[in-house]
Design a protein that fits this description.
Elements: E1 2-6, H1 12-23, H2 31-36, E2 46-51, E3 54-66, E4 71-75, E5 79-80, H3 89-103, E6 108-112, H4 115-118, E7 131-132, E8 142-146, E9 157-161, H5 171-182, H6 189-197
Parallel strand pairs: 4-6, 7-9
Antiparallel strand pairs: 1-2, 2-3, 3-4, 3-5, 3-9, 6-8
């Protein structure tokens, strides 16, 4: 039985493997990735489709500002395991994400995707024509959907990330942890650290 649920920390490796299989390394070169990197997804808006313990789908929403300083969300990436496609699961995940965003009081969702697919969920380029992504993008694929009437009125300018920064581990602490786990020959820094401190 397939269940769509909130993402858990334990899903991280399976989610990343799913995204790698779906998009490969090209996913890191997308303009939409500039809005996601070093950020956490919007609170309560990361979803996983699971079949038993297997992660077979992912959809996440991210906090952004749509040029005029108005808050909105960015949807993506949405990915489904290859052997589970064409069964309506992607659509179910998009609908779940939209429903949850509306319930949490968000006003609009923006995405970069195929209009032919996303128009069935109410997305269009009607109010995104004056918006820009931080990097190359296809104008026709920049789509928006209002959850509150007028939420994208006057949206113009550069889309910017506004989400919570992801915590980045302290390099010195990582080196120290590695040294404790693997002995003193980590990057030759053990002795160098003592010389600096002297």
């Amino acid at each position: 039985m397939i269940q769509i649920r909130h993402e858990r920390l334990a899903d991280l490796d399976a989610r990343e493997a799913l995204l790698d299989a779906a998009f490969g390394d090209s996913r890191y070169r997308k303009s939409s990735e500039r809005l996601r990197e070093d950020r956490l997804p919007a609170e309560g808006l990361s979803f996983i489709a699971a079949e038993g313990r297997r992660v077979i789908g992912t959809a996440r929403l991210w906090n952004i500002a749509v040029g005029n300083g108005r808050d909105a969300l960015l949807l993506g990436p949405v990915a489904i395991a290859e052997d589970c496609r064409s069964k309506g699961l992607g659509g179910a995940m998009v609908r779940r994400a939209i429903q949850a965003a509306r319930k949490l009081g968000h006003g609009a969702i923006v995405l970069v995707g195929d209009p032919e697919y996303y128009e069935r969920f109410g997305f269009s380029a009607e109010k995104t024509g004056a918006l820009w992504m931080p990097g190359p993008f296809e104008r026709r694929r920049l789509l928006g959907r209002e959850l509150v009437a007028g939420a994208l009125d006057g949206a113009r300018g550069m889309i910017a990330p506004t989400g919570r920064p992801a915590s980045t581990p302290d390099l010195h602490e990582l080196v120290a942890q590695d040294a404790r786990a693997n002995g003193p020959k980590v990057l030759g820094l053990r002795g160098a650290g003592r010389r600096r401190a002297a």
